[in-house]
Design a protein that fits this description.
globular; Rossmann fold; 2 domains; 13 helices
Length: about 325
């Protein structure tokens, strides 16, 4: 059993208590493709981080039965290739919803109130300038603003719940309408274009698929209000980042807060790094002790279920005939 990056020790202990031999990759860099293929030769299961499990890697791993993603996204796994090889692909969808939702709300507050800019100025010992020029830190409240949620899944629903506590008006768009949540939470389903045009904050919580890649581009950004903010804690490829940089520079929208990027790690020359109306964090949405504990246990549970000859409830390719 291979763990491609350090996880919470509870998950490792779960596996070892069941007699599973666990090898954890604890180096400071991810595996290269050649290293990953070599390490997978003698294992039945892998708890995977962000490595690229493409067709070549999967076909070369003759013993592999399960790729257990330590997270909710699986765009780094070639699911079709896994299915052909009889390898189950699992995720941990119930582990990180609360942490990512809190991150989204935190990013809304930060970009709306210019908190990171103010923090940076104070640290640079420019308090007097900060106080005298307080108008440049003038922000907006979340209260009574309209939040448009793109994707009302587990995380999106948690964001809605928290936004309502801030007295925000919540709308959403999804390919699947959830009328029960609409009634329970007093939120409104709207067309995608209406969501963009009328929201003060647009928060993205959709999965990355061929259909959603580039979901927010120049056309969509120009539909948003000039006073609105874009929040993305989902996947960077959902947003055309070049178009977003232009939108921020030319003030099509007021600001953006991103925890994810088209290319990760972000390159030092990326122009978005120089924009004061962008709040940027390094993909830390699930970086809480509680979420990482749950993720490790859920990922380990998925592996153990497969090794017992059963199918986890969190299987992406559930119709696959396992090895």
């Amino acid at each position: 059993m291979l763990v491609t990056a350090p996880i919470h020790e509870d998950g490792v202990m779960m596996l070892r208590k069941e007699g599973v031999e666990v090898r954890v990759h604890d180096q400071s860099r991810p595996y290269s493709k050649e290293e990953l293929i070599r390490e997978l030769q003698d294992v039945d299961g892998v708890i995977a981080g962000g490595e690229d499990f493409d067709e070549e890697v999967i076909e070369a791993s003759k013993r592999l039965k399960v790729i257990s993603r330590h997270g909710v996204g699986y765009d780094n796994v070639n699911v079709d290739a896994a299915s052909r090889a009889g390898v189950l692909v699992t995720i941990t969808p119930f582990a990180l919803s609360e942490s990512v939702a809190e991150t989204a709300i935190g990013l809304m507050l930060s970009v709306a109130r210019k908190l990171t800019n103010a923090d940076r100025l104070v640290r640079e010992k420019m308090w007097t300038e900060s106080y005298a020029g307080a108008s440049k830190f003038m922000g907006v409240e979340l209260a009574r603003k309209r939040l448009g949620i793109v994707g009302l899944g587990r995380i999106g629903a948690h964001v809605a719940k928290r936004a309502l506590a801030f007295d925000m008006e919540v709308t959403y768009h999804d390919v699947i309408r959830n009328e029960l949540l609409e009634q329970l939470m007093k939120i409104e389903f709207v067309a995608f274009d209406d969501l963009l045009a009328k929201s003060d904050f647009v928060s993205i919580h959709a999965p990355l698929t061929q259909a959603t890649k580039g979901l927010i581009g120049e056309k969509e950004l120009k539909k948003m209000k000039r006073t609105s903010f874009l929040i993305n804690t989902s996947r960077g490829q959902l947003v055309d980042q070049k178009a977003l940089v232009r939108a921020l520079k030319e003030k099509w929208i007021a600001g953006a807060a991103l925890d994810v990027f088209e290319v990760e790690p972000i390159v030092p020359s990326d122009p978005i790094l120089g924009l004061d109306n962008a709040v940027l964090t390094p993909h830390i949405g699930s970086a809480t002790m509680e979420a990482r504990n749950r993720m490790s246990r859920e990922a380990a549970s998925n592996v153990l279920t497969v090794l017992r000859g059963q199918q986890p409830r969190n299987t992406v390719n559930a119709k696959t005939k396992p090895r």
